[in-house]
Design a protein that fits this description.
The protein is built from 8 helices and 7 strands; from the N terminus they run αβαβαβαββααβαβα. By secondary structure, the protein is α/β, with parallel strands linked by helices. It has a single domain (23-223), classed as 3-Layer(aba) Sandwich (Rossmann fold), CATH 3.40.50.300. The N and C termini lie far apart (56 Å). It binds guanosine-5'-triphosphate (GTP) and magnesium ion (MG).
Length: 224
């Protein structure tokens, strides 16, 4: 009887990706850099969050940003307008960033010059959750207009993130979004999750998030 040979593509891709992510992690430790992977749906406020955080931390830390998009350089232009270097990854169709893409982007930066590296992942609540890119912190944003039920539909994203930022709280007054229910479900699914309610428009909660992030960065960099 002939033997069936199986090539499990997804398994292979994910394990090769994990190896590359571990190399990135080692490199970041060597260079004393803290990496934040920002994930969310299109338009949830990833670039706005990165910019608002940059404004609060740029006097304390040397920051660079890697922007992931299928097309365009518009987000990189917004980052550069803040006086912060940006590298744009254009995936040309891929709906997530993986470790080799991030590694290639990091090769474009002089890593001796930075303490904090933001990665803006592709707008998508599915695939980015599956790919380790070597980050120290996995952040996801959920914006109020998307609805409080997204945790039921995209549970993996809410399980792999360390921090949930509930953005656009300025829209709450015209929405039926149930924040308490979302917080409860998030803690049930992912007991270690840290949650901040924020608005990149009004600034609500952004100082608390930025101060918390600063403490996380200090504790990594002083332990190295
Ligand atoms: N009202 C309000 N608007 C916001 C807030 N945060 C972001 N926005 C707006 O939402 C829109 C999308 O914000 P971005 O920061 O570009 O979102 P993004 O997730 O980076 O989008 P993509 O990169 O295209 O996936 C912009 O018009 C922002 O000004 C907020 O807290 N409140
Ligand atoms: Mg963006």
């Amino acid at each position: 009887m002939c033997e069936i040979k199986i090539i499990d593509i997804k398994q292979n891709i994910l394990s090769e990706n994990k190896d590359q992510a571990n190399i990135i992690r080692q490199n970041l430790a060597l260079k004393n850099i803290f990496m934040v992977n920002v994930m969310a749906s299109p338009g949830a406020g990833k670039t706005s969050l990165i910019i608002e955080t940059i404004k609060r931390l740029k006097d304390k830390l040397r920051i660079a940003v890697v922007e992931g998009d299928i097309e365009s350089v518009v987000d990189s232009e917004k980052i550069i307008a803040q006086g912060i270097p940006a590298v744009q990854i254009r995936t040309g169709g891929a709906c997530h960033l993986d470790a080799p893409m991030v590694s290639a982007a990091m090769d474009q930066l002089n890593l001796d010059l930075y303490d904090l590296l933001f990665i803006e992942n592709i707008g998508n609540l599915v695939c980015p959750a599956e790919f380790d890119i070597g980050s120290d912190l996995q952040v996801m944003l959920l914006s109020i207009p998307e609805g409080d039920d997204k945790i039921l539909k995209y549970p993996l994203m809410f399980s792999v993130c360390d921090v949930l930022l509930v953005n656009k709280t300025d829209y709450l007054f015209m929405s039926d979004f149930n924040r308490e229910l979302l917080h409860r479900r998030a803690k049930e699914l992912n007991p270690g999750i840290k949650i901040f309610d924020i608005s990149c428009k009004t600034g609500e909660g952004v100082n608390d998030w930025s101060n918390w992030l600063m403490k996380k960065i200090e504790s990594k960099l002083t332990s190295l």
